[in-house]
Request: fold
Amino acid sequence: MAPMGPKKGSIPNGRGTKNAQASTSKASTRGGISKRRGPGIVKVDRDGDLNMDASATINASQSNSKRPKNNSTPSGITRNSSRKPTAKTQQIIQRIMDESRDSSRTRGTRRADNASPVVLKVEGLKDSKAASNEGGGVKELLSFLERKAQSIGQTTRHIRIKKSQMKGDLVYITASKDDAQEILKVTNFTFAGATLRIAEAPEGLPDRGSTPLSSTALEIKEQLRGVLSSRYDVNAKLLNLSALGEDSTLQQMGFFNGDSTPEKMFRALMAVCDGLFKTAQAKRDAVVSISLAGNNVNDVLQVMSLTDTFPDIVNLDLSRNQLKDLKALQKWRYRLRSLQTLLLSENPIEVANLNYKVEIISWFPRLQNLSGTQVRTPEQVAVAEAASRPTPIPQSGPDFRDIGGVGEGFITEFLSLYDADRHNLAGKYYDEQSTFSIAVNTQSPHTPNVPLPTWGAYIKFSRNHTRINHPPARQQRLFTGVNQIQALWQQLPRTQHPSLTAHLDKYVVDCHPIHGLADPTGQNPSGVDGMIMTIHGEFEDQEPGTTKTAKRSFSRTFILGPGAPGRHPIRVVSDMLSVKAFKTLPPSVATPQQTVTAEDQQKEHMLLELCKQTGMTTQYSKFCLESAAWNFHQALTSFLEKKAQLPQEAFATAT
Reply:
């Protein structure tokens, strides 16, 4: 059953109601979610919208929208005074829901929230064989995207597309942030003979050009607003939607007749409620607790729209319903992540499953009060949240082991040329065997108060292996050869890196020798020496086609080796770029590199010269010099005396 009030003989509305706010509500005398008591005035703004902010005084109900008194004895749903809803009324309700969602989207309500749905645009349906199907093949496309996204991500949760809209050659879809990341992996897949191209749509859903609501529709919308206003307690920040089947206004509107749809009525209530808030933060500030007690709900799917409208509520009362097992609550397992208090008393699940609390506690990581029992302390919640956050590996500063200034010269020139002339940069350092890849990390920690950037210009090329685990998709996103790399770099946003020499504190650069790289001349089967270089830093980029800029952090790893004959003496063997939201470097990492002394430079020179004269590896040459107290002639003499006794590995990678 959908919300239709308590069954005959059940506890009346108001009796046994527990507090979803625990001790936060002074109006409660039994620890239950407090009900609004006392007359008052319903306050609306100049647009006619119900004002549910902290400054509003909303404690009144009109005579035609009063709920039954707490001492009334319910006997099911009253039908005597109800008028039967027509199909036209149901259509009006649907239009109210659509109009409220469009209004919310226009004001930016959902885009202002980090957890709001993401809009994607899909191209390719028009070219597919499914385009000739009924409905243009949209239904088949959505099913394909959900199925493929779930299989690619190997996730156990169901990938769900919330809304879809077709305009021209594009299909616009909305999904949660996590689901959208999985759906983006389906780009370049073949659907009904056509290749799909999927990207984020920062502009949102296109305008559908809806017509204004009729006077009848506006009247119904105002009646629903009146129901909401009469059930909102501004002081307790409580929206009391308990026993909706007993609400006289909803009864007179005919929502509880045998052929009506109470579930649709609840969605309409949520849609109207969603339109009352101009931002997601205003919604969080106004509504902390919600009561759905006494609504005969036997599966949370019937009230699923609650979690879409109020995803961040702290306290929820589901007592006196018909939830009989965990399956009835399963669909909320990955929702309501801020929930601290949950009341399930007087549901069949209490008797049918005595251990249900153990499972419920694991579903909601911040839950502290379950049906009046403390299951976690605030300290335990804080410890668990701290443990779940990624902790950076402690670093003492950059470790830069360059040879002959090759690494320093390369990275300094690379950053400036990447900003100014990528085409010639690629032609200079990259060849037909060079590889480049980019990975987008949307889950990395970021600096507070810095706007989170969009990823539309990068995500379609991302090779992040935690997201892209399908071999063909990974292969498509590995760019090999100077031509492919030049073509890709041309599509990436323009960037501006801070000067490496003037702002060294904004970077961490590590450089180490590496052995065994492929010799481009083919003369050394055992390989040649090179170096591996990693740089962490920041840059600003410009969104293609606009003047909008964003600051991002990045990590870039190069493997450098000798160039082929006739080309630049240095070649990039591999270039891996990772981009993420901006985060300042830890103070211990951002400390500039210590000054290299003359003694260190002399030791470096002796090490290189000994490697050259003896053919030994760097490791054995350094050991030989240390044994001779860094006396070069003594070290060379010692080598000549003991050369025959040295193991083969001392010369294994000699050039």
Q: What stands out?
A: The longest strand covers residues 528-542. Confidence is low (pLDDT under 50) at residues 5-50, 53-85, 104-114, 588-594. Residues 1-9+17-65+81-109+212-389 form a domain with the Leucine-rich repeat, LRR (right-handed beta-alpha superhelix) fold (CATH 3.80.10.10).
